[in-house]
């Protein structure tokens, strides 16, 4: 969208967070140590375009570009907010699922499913500019993972999956015809493949045509333990033969599946997919593809069979222009006119949530309670500003001005997940205190409990909060500390083990929240967020 732009460079000596390009003509997986769930990819000319699920986070449908399939830059979003009342407050596990990106007749299209609303499409002639308003192609519950296909005979279709949680069944793929302009279903939705017996939980289909065959690439077996399946037929409506073409094998890459097939200018083919890493989310891998007897083999095949295994280190894709190594941004000095692209709100956002111009060089977040709930929790608050975790271990530091906080308001830094923890400055009864808070609860309900509270002087104008996130015996652990003078840090004395979010990984977040429903509110000023990777 036109009101978002590329974040440039780093500041304050930030260490590079995850390096996939090894600089010797090879790369290591994952190519993105970040939660870009359900990725899909295409090539147009010498540029590769990737999109991914965004669920309830806004702006949604991220668009990344690359020139070599290894180094990626986040450049845009295709959807600013989700235009349903449900998403005024965070609608966890709902929203934008598993998109497919395509280029047809000089226009870019992204199709995506919203499991409670239907299948939608956005389009753009310039993918780095403003995208169209979403169009509902087919309304209905449980319709997910759509992939459009324009056939050579002038017919057009959408192939998709079904969400058991909404429609009562799974492991089936469906198809319906659509208008050639890609905007509307024009016929009945019907089943084309039932994987209940041999390909349980098959979903996320991507369709391609090659040498007279229709190929559907689709994951099966479940996100954590599954595999990549390919279906093949001479008729788009089936019957389809099936073959498993990649599995975990002897590697550490669990559940390698769900992604997109893409070629290079030199006619190499590659498969981009995700791996579920729990707290870290669904991180992105790249695998070589070769064909044998009319079927693809993805990754390496140690025994020269049709079944591949993921690679960890491999020669980079050929036929691409030379492109400098790229790294996902995490730090921010808030000196730009617009929010950096790594930021997404927890729900639909409004301009009154923040300002980058009220105090130049600072992010001012206004202490609102958009949910109207009492008591309010961060889980219910769309005005929590979040970004993905982009490396295994890191230190995150913020400096925050707190003199603008009003009565019954709090501001700070959060590690957001299915359960979450935060450190904040809270103003109550005209006193300032530092609070460490953890969430608890099940299903869609979260409550918050103050674990630690420490009074600080009302004369303090700024506070520094640090989060240390690292792996301890294979399990991610986080801890907070803070400083109010001369670099002396006070530990909370508690560690927090993040839990996986609903469909996403944990996230780092900033917030300024009103704890009541009064009309007038204060604010907090964030001077910077600095994120440094370390071995841990």
Write up this protein.
The protein is mainly β and 536 residues long. It is 1% helix and 46% strand. The chain contains 1 helix and 36 strands. The strands form 8 sheets. It has a 7-stranded antiparallel beta sheet with strand order 23-26-35-28-29-30-31, with no helix packed on it. Strands 24-25-36-27-32-33-34 form a 7-stranded antiparallel beta sheet, with no helix packed on it. The protein has a 4-stranded antiparallel beta sheet with strand order 2-3-4-5, with no helix packed on it. β24 and β25 (363-366) form a beta hairpin. The longest helix is centred in the N-terminal third of the chain and has 4 residues, at 164-167. The protein is globular and about 75 Å long. Mean pLDDT is 94; it is low at 1-14.
How confident is the prediction overall: mean pLDDT?
94
Distance between the termini: 37 Å
Q: What gross morphology would you assign?
A: globular
Number of strands: 36
Taking all Cα atoms into account, the compactness measure Rg is 23 Å
Note poorly predicted spans.
1-14
Class inferred from helices and paired strands: mainly beta
Strand content: over 45%
